[in-house]
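At this stage, I needed to go through a protein sequence along with its fold in token form, as given directly below:
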Amino acid sequence: MASQAAQIRRMREDDSEDIRIGAYPSQDITVEVLGYCHAQVAEIKKLIASKRVRDIVHLSGNFVVVATRDPEVWIITSPYGAVAFFYSVGPSGFRYGRTVDDAVQHGTERQWNLEGLADLLALEHLTGDNTLEVEVQQTPAASILYWNGSRLQEWTATWSEIHDRHYPEGRPERAIELLCEEVARCSGLSPVISLSGGFDSRVLLASILASGGTKPELLVLGPSTSTDRMVVEAIGREFALKVHPIELTIDDYIASAETICRATSGTKPAAHWHTYIYAAKAKLTNENRLLVGTNGEFARTYYFDKGMLAVAADYLPCRLTLHKFWKQKARRGLAQCDASEFRSETATYLQDGDEQLRRLARTRSGGTTLHELARFYIDERVRHFYANGLALYGQSASWRTPFLSVPWVAEVEKLARHWKLGSNWHRFALAHLCPKLLEFPEEMVAPTMAKQHQKFYWLPFRRAQHFVPYFDYTAFFAEEQVLSHLLACAPHICDIIDEKKVKRIVEEHRASQQRGRLISILLGLAVWRATAASS
């Protein structure tokens, strides 16, 4: 499994070696920008031509820049890798593209990356540079890949190289100012905010309303009885903002399955396909900028937001605490899919989870447990899980992610812990920018948002408010149309799980409704491989 991936890694030059750039006119260079960059293409070309290619990594925005001057290729990624891009080196040379299928070597046998598969089953996303194909890698964040026609070099900026230049102070007021600056850059003339009943998107709205500029339109997902839609429509009435409600149907999912799975290379479980459908049904124009709250969680304690319990955990030995944390979380995910249901090689890998735990629990910054988990969130979950969502938004909309601004991330990383518990910074930002937005419900908690979190806010009794979701996934995975679609595509993943096992899982789910999570993941894998086989 690891041999081809290891060969690719060995072909990379030492990181200390500068990426060689030839001296030639910028007009000889072709540049494509995926995602968005606040700099113009002409500026990017000049940086490449003047041998300052590393400066492109520091340009603001979330992007992949693909620059070519045959036979040379440069692939340059922004700091958080939020725009997924893939490559491989092999008999067909240097292959690359927006999907894993684009980067697969011609004429080679496709082989599952079991490390990636194990992470998908445990976390619903991959980690590191892994894809589900052994020979294909995801481009690193904050990096440059340079192909000179015969060999590949790689350079990656460190976290401190990216963030220290912004001189973060850890002040909540400065984090608000930096976010507002980025929202203003991202909004354009016709902003649309993907709004829910939560904190992140509401802070984005508060930033625009506080500026007194163009009024945004609001996009919300769910039927008229859903909590998010009721909250958003109430906000729309109060501020005289146009609201676009989007409702999902099972037919939407089936019709979109191939497009979704191709765009996300099999790593988007069916329970998260709504991201594509939502944006596609909104029918946004080229002038619209869809602002989404991706990475707003960085200003929280995403994996362990439990007040004083979280603070106490930060005093425990980091490596030991991380190992225990991931053992519980990753094993809990894998427990919902019996390893014995998979074929022997896959089953053996899934049953021996020690290597996976070592990977997940490795330290990144030498910080405390909560700081390490925050880095895992932005380095892994944002780069993989949320990048998939952005790839799906990008099929039909021009998205922007203000919370993935480097200055804001640098500032928030330095905030004292109490600002990151119970959404305290978000509450502070709302009170500072648009206090009236606090008067609308706090999801599952209270009819209004408090300026500070309540005592013991993490306990279940604090989340007792009735909540109606945007879509009923229990009913979705009970639908024969959905289960039949999985069975029809199951032969395409028979190299990891026998068709008979898939049928048994489906039968168990029909009887118990307890296998929805595994069916969600298998459906993404099966449709992806079926789509690849037919193309």
Summary: The chain is about 45% helix and 10% strand. The longest helix spans residues 369-393. The chain has four domains: 2-157, 164-301+381-463, 315-367, 473-534.
